[in-house]
Amino acid sequence: MKTEKITVEEFHLLQAIIWEGDLRIHTSREYGKKTPFKKNIIHGDTTAILSIQLLRRKLKKKFPLHEFNCRFLVPTYVGDQIYVEFQQSQDFLTFTTWNQDGVCVMEGEYRYAF
């Protein structure tokens, strides 16, 4: 199954900065240019949270989260559009998060708590 797309906006970047306090690689354009990414990246936690949000919207219910595991494969940037493809079983689902270029940015597993 596949979710709708969501555009990653600067607002999403700023929310993560508030709780993580990690500024340089995420907000300083000059510093971002000097990194291997060549520009500012979105926090991995933000990509994970947006992916969970897309999954919950698609499934039209909120499953209590018991365990969430993921691997970040490539960075997500402001302006990217991401969507999630997933397979669901009785107590968990596996997923991949893709960007607008068809590149897998994250993969993982979401286990429900019942």
Order of helices and strands: EHHHHEEEE
Instruction: Report Rg.
Output: 15 Å
Q: What's the domain count?
A: 1
| CATH-defined fold name | Thiol Ester Dehydrase, Chain A
Q: Give the low-pLDDT segments.
A: none
The beta-strand count equals: 5
CATH architecture: Roll
The rough form would be described as elongated
Terminal Cα span: 22 Å
Mean pLDDT across the residues is 84
Q: Strand order across the biggest sheet?
A: 1-3-4-5-2
Strand content: 25-35%
How many strands, which pairing sense, and closed or not: the largest β-sheet? 5 strands, antiparallel
Detailed description of the structure:
This protein has 114 residues and is an alpha+beta fold. It has one domain (6-112): Thiol Ester Dehydrase, Chain A. Helices cover 32% and strands 31% of the residues. The protein is built from 4 helices and 5 strands. It has a 5-stranded antiparallel sheet, with helices on one face. Strand 4 and strand 5 (104-112) form a beta hairpin. It is elongated, with a radius of gyration of 15 Å. It starts with 5 loop residues before the first strand and ends with a strand.
